[in-house]
Specification:
Strand content: under 5%
Low-confidence stretches: 215-219
Mean pLDDT: 84
Strand order of the largest sheet: 1-2
Radius of gyration: 23 Å
Largest sheet: 2 strands, antiparallel
Helix content: 55-70%
Shape: globular
Distance between the termini: 74 Å
């Protein structure tokens, strides 16, 4: 006669059950093998690297079918894919750890003072800072740019919230809640990290090698170039997401996609404005 399966009391909800998983809340019984270094390391790799097939599948959908992953998530079909926020954290971790990656969400002090809409205000604030600290512009610029790079990677979540606002206004009649627009903004930011930061870093690395071999020099890669790339790639994302996520069609599709890119560009400028003040406050 077979021995009955041992019963366990769930440490999370107190439910009595048999087997390894609680039938009430899904909590797993931790076995000795689960505490082994090899198992822990494997779980970390699955959670934070590309070894999880869900990550690769979700990333591919984000790049080639923008808006699909967010639609599946908000409609409750979540088992087959990685959640948009999880994918964002993985990509942002890579973006944070590798300094050579294109700083799409960052702006140098020169750009803040001479290119962006708040340039004149930035000039006045920097002039006051230099006078108070008794520093030269060249020395301060080096300190500012180094600090700004780190902060830009930490503050991307601000851009997500800002990007969700124009989306909620432009597509407010498409039966979506504000949290749904935030989910799409998370996917859009992941798209930018994957394509415009990680992907283009590799592309420009190859270009730089080719140009270097040809003894060609130029300033083809700067804040203006990155802004153009941002507008172009995000126009593609918004156009596809307007169809997939919002169910938009007809002539309004093009109009709303264009309005969306203006809204995202405005969100990016506000983000850079906030980044400037936070950086100035911390240096």
């Amino acid at each position: 006669m077979d021995n009955p399966a041992p019963q366990h009391i769930c440490k999370s909800c107190g439910n009595t059950f048999t087997g390894l998983y609680c039938n009430a809340c899904g909590e797993k019984i931790i076995e000795p093998k689960d505490r082994k270094f090899k198992t822990v390391l494997a779980n970390v790799l699955i959670a934070t690297t590309f070894s999880d097939n869900k990550f690769i599948k979700s990333l591919r959908l984000t790049i080639f079918r923008p808006g699909f992953l967010s639609r599946e998530y908000v409609d409750g079909r979540r088992v087959q894919y990685m959640r948009p926020l999880q994918m964002f954290f993985i990509l942002n971790l890579v973006y944070f750890l590798f300094p050579g990656i294109l700083q799409l969400f960052n702006s140098s002090l020169h750009t803040q003072m001479h290119v962006l809409p708040h340039a004149k205000l930035a000039q006045k604030i920097v002039a006051m800072k230099l006078k108070t600290e008794g520093m030269s512009l060249i020395g301060f610029e080096l300190i500012y740019n180094e600090k700004s790079v780190s902060l830009a990677k930490l503050l991307i979540v601000i851009f997500i919230l800002l990007a969700s606002l124009p989306l909620s206004l432009i597509f407010m009649k498409r039966n979506r809640f504000l949290t749904d627009h935030v989910a799409l903004a998370v996917e859009l930011t992941s798209f930018n990290l994957a394509v415009n930061a990680l992907g283009l870093t590799f592309v420009f690395w190859i270009i730089n090698k080719v140009l270097h071999l040809g003894h060609f020099s130029g300033t083809y890669l700067n804040d203006v170039t990155l802004t153009i790339l941002f507008i172009t790639t995000n126009m593609y994302f918004l156009f596809r997401a307007a169809i997939t996520f919002y169910g938009q069609s007809g002539n309004r599709l093009f109009i709303k996609a264009i309005l969306g890119i203006f809204g995202l560009f405005l969100a990016l400028e506000v983000y850079r404005f906030i980044l400037f003040f936070i950086t100035m406050w911390t240096v």
